[in-house]
């Protein structure tokens, strides 16, 4: 069976993300043309060339860009996001909140993009086990690997036939988004450790927040103190 290539793909990834580059390479092998935009930070302004909006699909992988209605409605078929978290953890900081809540499983979700954050029809959910002593670094590594595999699988199914889009929606109809979506301000507030915390809660908050340049903090006498080693 001869499978036709995608005509044009608009792909949003993340700057210095090796998985984004792997997806880009994967897309190029299945598309006549791929327009690639890399996001660097939260709140970054998205400037897209008008002719790039005329595409078959939009794929978002670990992207900070927030798509507007004009972008979402542009593709011939649809716009899809690969969310680094299961449906019960919408928005920002899913990995942090899940670790703090001692979840035994985490995962990733592929969904159609609409004008709300992590709200569109779900195409696929993948979950993996999490150990109680695993911190942000370990869980994120698993999440990004899971997200990469999921993205390739979804793209491959659409490459085989656009009709698979509806099939995936029907197959995942039992998966439901949480009613609540966390924002960046919620995550920033979560990083604060109360001075009234028990030793057990203190350790759990450290486990759920400390990662690279991201560190928890306390407020004492109206001053902010970053907790570091």
Describe it for me?
- By secondary structure, the protein is α/β, with parallel strands linked by helices.
- The strands form 3 sheets. The protein has a 6-stranded mixed β-sheet with strand order 2-1-3-4-6-7.
- The chain has helices at residues 18-28, 69-72, 94-100, 136-160, 164-171, 184-190, 199-209, and strands at residues 6-14, 31-39, 57-61, 78-83, 90-91, 105-112, 122-129, 181-182, 217-220, 223-226.
- The mean pLDDT is 94.
- 32% of the residues lie in helices and 25% in strands.
- The protein has 2 domains: 6-182, 3-Layer(aba) Sandwich (Rossmann fold), CATH 3.40.50.170; 191-226, no CATH class.
Q: At the first level of CATH, what is the class of the largest domain?
A: Alpha Beta
The CATH homologous superfamily of the largest domain is called Formyl transferase, N-terminal domain
CATH architecture tag of the largest domain: 3-Layer(aba) Sandwich
Q: Count the strands?
A: 10
Number of helices: 7
Q: What are the low-pLDDT stretches, counting only 5+ consecutive residues below 50?
A: none
Rg of Cα set:
19 Å
Which range best describes the helical content: under 10%, 10-25%, 25-40%, 40-55%, 55-70% or over 70%? 25-40%
Largest beta sheet: strand ordering? 2-1-3-4-6-7
SSE blueprint:
Elements: E1 6-14, H1 18-28, E2 31-39, E3 57-61, H2 69-72, E4 78-83, E5 90-91, H3 94-100, E6 105-112, E7 122-129, H4 136-160, H5 164-171, E8 181-182, H6 184-190, H7 199-209, E9 217-220, E10 223-226
Parallel strand pairs: 1-2, 1-3, 3-4, 5-8
Antiparallel strand pairs: 4-6, 6-7, 9-10
Helix pairs in contact: 1-4, 3-7
């Amino acid at each position: 069976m001869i499978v036709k290539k995608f005509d044009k793909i608009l792909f949003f990834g993340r700057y210095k993300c090796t998985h984004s580059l792997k997806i880009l390479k994967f897309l190029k092998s299945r598309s006549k043309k791929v327009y690639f935009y890399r996001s660097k930070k939260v709140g970054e302004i998205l400037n897209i060339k008008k002719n790039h909006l005329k595409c078959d699909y939009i794929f978002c992988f670990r992207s900070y860009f927030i798509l507007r209605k004009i972008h979402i409605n542009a593709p011939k078929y649809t716009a899809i996001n690969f969310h680094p978290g299961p449906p019960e953890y919408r928005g920002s900081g899913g990995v942090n909140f899940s670790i703090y809540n001692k979840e035994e499983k985490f995962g990733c979700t592929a969904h159609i993009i609409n004008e709300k954050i992590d709200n569109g029809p779900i195409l696929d959910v993948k979950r993996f086990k999490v150990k109680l002593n695993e911190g942000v670094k370990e869980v994120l590594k698993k999440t990004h690997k899971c997200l990469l595999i999921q993205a390739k699988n979804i793209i491959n199914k659409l490459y085989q036939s656009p009709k698979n889009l509806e099939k995936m929606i029907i197959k995942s109809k039992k998966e439901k988004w949480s009613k609540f979506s966390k924002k960046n301000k919620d995550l920033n507030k979560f990083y604060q450790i109360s001075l009234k915390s028990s030793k057990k809660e203190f350790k759990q908050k450290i486990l759920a927040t400390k990662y690279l340049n991201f560190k928890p903090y306390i407020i004492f006498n109206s001053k902010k103190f970053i907790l570091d080693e």
